[in-house]
Amino acid sequence: MFSVTRRLAAATLLVGCLAGSAWAADAPRVKFVTSAGEFVVEVFPDKAPKTAENFLQYVRDKHYDGTLFHRVIDRFMIQGGGVDKDMVERKTRAPIPLEAQQAYGKGLRNTVGALAMARTNDPDSATAQFFINVADNGFLDPKPGSPGYTVFGRVVSGLDVVNKIKAVPTGAADVPVTPVVIQSATIVK
């Protein structure tokens, strides 16, 4: 009886693992081609549905093409997707509601390589700008008294390019001295 129970438990665990990897295999991926190189992110509509769909719609609309990584802070994050080469903010759709708590409850954290939405002090103000964590930034996760920032994806290839971007020299307001341009963002899966 004991070995049958162990086999059943092992089979259940295996099915669960296979199902989990199948979900990850279905996650949309976006390839960013930048002036510093290429990287790919995977987004998780099952964990932050409104945020992921908002981001993917901006990708489909080619909103990110020609924008900059306009805020770069080594040991913190790189932020982009909102301003063009002249530092003019691009027009956006209406803000989306914050999903930080929901995503956090499903295991998403502001860790190295995590993709999250930028916002103002208003928790429900995220539009198009996003950031990639280049350090473990647990203080950005939701907790009592702090709404947090919604993580909705992660870098799956090209983290070396993200690390190259985080190391660029910056000037006033953490703006790179030499612009880092997002030449294109394309859904590849």
| Poorly predicted regions | 1-23
Biggest sheet, open or closed, and with what strands and sense?
Answer: 8 strands, antiparallel, barrel
Structural class of the secondary elements?
Answer: alpha+beta
Element-level helix/strand string: HEEHEEHEEEHE
Beta fraction: 25-35%
Q: Under the CATH scheme, which architecture would be assigned?
A: Beta Barrel
The CATH topology: Cyclophilin
Mean pLDDT: 91
| CA radius of gyration | 18 Å
Brief write-up:
The protein has 189 residues and is of the alpha+beta class. It has helices spanning 2-26, 49-60, 100-105, 159-166; strands at residues 29-34, 37-43, 67-73, 77-84, 114-117, 130-133, 151-157, 181-187. Helix content is 27%, strand content 26%.
Textual characterization of the structure:
- The structure is a single chain.
- The chain has 189 residues and is α+β, with helices and mostly antiparallel strands.
- The protein has one domain (27-187): Cyclophilin-like (Cyclophilin, Beta Barrel).
- The chain is 27% helix and 26% strand.
- The protein has four helices and eight strands.
- The protein has helices spanning 2-26, 49-60, 100-105, 159-166; strands spanning 29-34, 37-43, 67-73, 77-84, 114-117, 130-133, 151-157, 181-187.
- It has an eight-stranded antiparallel β-barrel.
- A hairpin with a 3-residue loop joins strand 3 (67-73) and strand 4.
- The N and C termini lie far apart (45 Å).
- 37% of the residues are buried.
